[in-house]
Amino acid sequence: MPNPTTRLRKLGFLTIGLFDRDEPAKGHETTLSIIQLGEQLGFDSAWVRHRHLQYGISSPVAVLAAASQRTSRIELGTAVIPLGWENPLRLAEDLATVDILSGGRLNPGVSVGPPMRWHDVRSALYPDSAESEDFSYARVERLLRFVRGERSSEFHGTAGIEEFSERVEPHSPGLARRIWYGGASLRSAQWTGEQGLNFLTSSVVRAEHSEDFEEIQLAHVRAFRERHPDGANARVSQGLVVIPTDSASAEQRAKYEAYAQARTPRTSTPQGPARMMFARDIVGSSEQIAQRLYAQPAFQEIDEVAFALPFSFTPEDYVQILTDIATKLGPALGWRSAS
Q1: What backbone torsions phi and psi does residue 198 show, to the nearest 5 degrees?
Q2: What is the DSSP secondary structure assignment for residue 171, as one 8-state letter?
Q3: Cα 96 from Cα 101, distance rounded (Å)
Q4: What is the rounded CA–CA span in Å between residue 166 and residue 152?
Q5: pTM, to two decimals
Q6: At what angle do helices 138-147 and 88-101 cross, to 10 degrees?
Q7: Does 1 have pLDDT greater than 80?
Q8: Virtual CA dihedral for 297, 183, 57, 309, nearest 10 degrees?
Q9: CB 185 within 8 A of CB 208
Q10: What is 10-332's CATH number?
């Protein structure tokens, strides 16, 4: 077995929450059931992706509000909410509300940049302000101010029979410390550290100064911590696609291996104008996956992960994968179940 230098402290998983166009309720129910299963298996966190105008979760905050009422312990995160689609003040209200409903378990992950397929949606999303919308880091800074309880209105007090607050209500005092930024570039890693946020690094990075995924990711982790007030103790969560096959059937193993093989070509060279690099999916026994992870330089410097579930598998596949992660892979990485 691998010889870990640092015990994995937090084990999480990430799901896209797929659903059928004509029967969306079933897919959302599956997502909630998977989160419940994660808590039962002892996972520390469950994260949901965000997909607009697609057949995946379009409103992760609403989904996590429902999940908060079906669970009692597991942390609930978004990875990530693209702020180009959001009004930061309204989002701050929603996040604080769900954080309170969950008992302080929400971990909002966000990112910036123009909305995906911007030219196709701009007239629907911002019909009167598309040219003036700011999709820079300033949008995160606005959200942070509102979440921290800074002034968002020039008026507070009583008007007639109604009372008004100068800040976003409800206010959840600990929420700002649990906000994450999902970054794929060196500048994003540095900026996240400068803001004192937590850092989400995933299976996608930008090839700016190298074409070696692991080298790039390690540089991001170190750059983030160099700029963060907490230094080496600043929180980083790594998200990779790992598929343990310990209890998988022969049919499942064949499907998993075919899935990973089909996605492998994009891992060899930077993709598209943005020169994005993708990590290889890791398929195999938990012992084999643990060995592969411990060989990665970035993994050697983190103690939190949120392994991503593949997009297109069945609920039965997810049960098998999550069970193997919690009972086989997690312990192989030195993790101890919260249950």
Answers
A1: -90, 155
A2: -
A3: 9
A4: 6
A5: 0.96
A6: 40
A7: no
A8: -10
A9: yes
A10: 3.20.20.30
